[in-house]
Structure formats: C-alpha cells, structure tokens
Write a structure and sequence with these properties.
By secondary structure, the chain is an alpha+beta fold. The chain has two domains: 7-144, Glutaredoxin, CATH 3.40.30.10; 163-208, Antioxidant, Horf6, Chain A, domain 2, CATH 3.30.1020.10. Helix content is 31%, strand content 22%. It has helices spanning 23-27, 43-54, 56-61, 74-88, 103-107, 147-162, 186-192; strands spanning 13-14, 21-22, 31-36, 64-70, 96-98, 122-127, 133-139, 165-166, 177-179, 198-201, 204-207. A five-stranded mixed β-sheet has the order 5-4-3-6-7. It has a four-stranded antiparallel β-sheet with strand order 8-9-11-10. The protein has a two-stranded antiparallel ribbon with strand order 1-2. A hairpin with a 2-residue loop joins strand 10 (198-201) and strand 11. It is elongated and about 60 Å long. The two termini are 36 Å apart. 28% of the residues are buried. The protein binds benzoic acid. Benzoic acid binds at residues 38-39, 42-45, 141-142. GO terms for molecular function: peroxiredoxin activity. Pfam families: 1-cysPrx_C, AhpC-TSA. Belongs to the peroxiredoxin family. Prx6 subfamily. Keywords: Antioxidant, Oxidoreductase, Peroxidase, Redox-active center.
Length: 213
C-alpha cells in the first residue's frame, strides 16, 4: 500500500519489545513518529535508536511518541536493546515493533523490493493527533537519519498548524517565518502579526516567529 501526505495513518496491532501494541491506543492524542530500520544488531541503526532515546525530553516537550520497527523478532529486539543501552550510554524508552510477518511494513510501504526483498528501508512517518500523515522520508540503509531534522519538522508543523505562516529554507525554531501567500488582507495581517512584517516581494513576506502555544 502506498501512503501519501494527508492520508489517515493505518492502524495495526503487532507484537513489540514492550508487548502487543495497538498503534492508535499507543498514540492516544499525541503526535507520533513511526520509523523503520533495516535490521537489529547493525551499526547505523544502533546509533539511530540510541540517539532517539536520548531525545526523549525533546519529544515529550512536543507531545510526540516514538516507535521503531524492523522485521526481527521480539527476542532479537530485547537483546539488541541491551547493546544499544550499553554502547550508546542511554536507555531505550520506546517500543520496537517486531514485524516478522511484515504486516506493518506492507501497510506503510517500508519494504522497497529493489533495495531489499525482505528488509525494511530506513523510512520515517510523522503522524499528527488526528492520525494524519504529515511527513514521509526514506533514507538508504547506509545513511543514518538526522533526528534534529525530525524535531525541526515537528516544530514547523506545530507552528504552521496554529498560525498562517510557513517556515523557509533551513528555518530553526525562533527564526523569522513567512506569511502564507493566501493571506492578503492588510488589516488581518497587522492583527495576526503585531510584531510587524517586511515585504520582500508581494509573495515573500517575513515576520518574527509568532508565539507558540
Ligand atoms: C546499519 O544499520 O548499520 C546498516 C543496516 C543495513 C545495511 C547497512 C548498514
């Protein structure tokens, strides 16, 4: 199945390192990050999962729950978690789905047969509290993901959901943002952006980042 931005994220029930998980129950009203990795006991994945564990407070601040997935079994996940904890000096604090029958991988298109017939690729999906898919990325097995970038996207999504703005290239929390081109009414712009704004071109208007909730 192909998943696209704006689709409702499919629900599933599957075994994990923390027991059987129903995805929607796990998410509750939170944002979610579901990410697949090719295999347990592999070096890049070890660093990715360790780093994700270290970002727990950053995810919590944003109301995000992380959950990982590979096609290895629960016993493998549990043994590998001990290695991750030791080698990455952390404690894995999120479940790893044991998708041996590839049920979830198929639902989320995590197996790309021309990359590997059997292993999941390095994909990541951000899901909002309405269960809508808001970001999909896929990296090759040889390239570890940048989880600072994932946090940056969450910040952008949460900001732009609440204000009529979008975030420009390389934006970081606190930087100027752009006013959405569809907002044209001068009075409304002044009301929404009391800190003022600059018009670079009629379609590129910059304003200080509005207060986040
Ligand atoms: C890794 O996580 O290190 C890895 C996994 C599959 C292929 C290459 C590297």
């Amino acid at each position: 199945m192909t998943i696209r931005l704006g689709d409702i994220a499919p629900d599933f029930t599957q075994d994990s390192s923390e027991g059987i998980i129903n995805f929607y129950d796990f998410l509750g009203d939170s944002w979610g990050i579901l990410f697949s990795h090719p295999a347990d006991y592999t070096p890049v994945c070890t660093t990715e999962l360790g780093f994700t564990a270290k970002l727990k407070d950053e995810f919590s601040k944003r109301g995000v729950k992380a959950i990982a997935l590979s096609v290895d079994d629960v016993e493998s996940h549990k043994g590998w978690i001990q290695d991750i904890n030791t080698t990455q000096n952390t404690t894995v604090n999120f479940p790893i789905i044991a998708d041996q029958d590839r049920k979830v991988s198929t639902l989320y298109d995590f197996i790309h047969p021309n990359a590997s017939e059997t292993l999941t690729v390095r994909s990541l999906v951000i899901i909002d509290p309405n269960k809508k898919v808001r970001l999909i990325i896929t990296y090759p097995a040889s390239t570890g993901r940048n989880f600072h970038e994932i946090l940056r996207v969450v910040d952008s999504l949460q900001l732009t959901d609440n204000h009529k703005v979008a975030t420009p290239a390389n934006w970081q929390h606190g930087d100027e943002v752009v006013i959405v081109p569809s907002l044209k009414d001068e009075e409304e712009i002044k009301q929404r952006f009391p800190k003022g704004y600059k018009t670079v071109t009629p379609y590129l208007r910059l304003t200080p980042q509005p207060e986040t909730k």
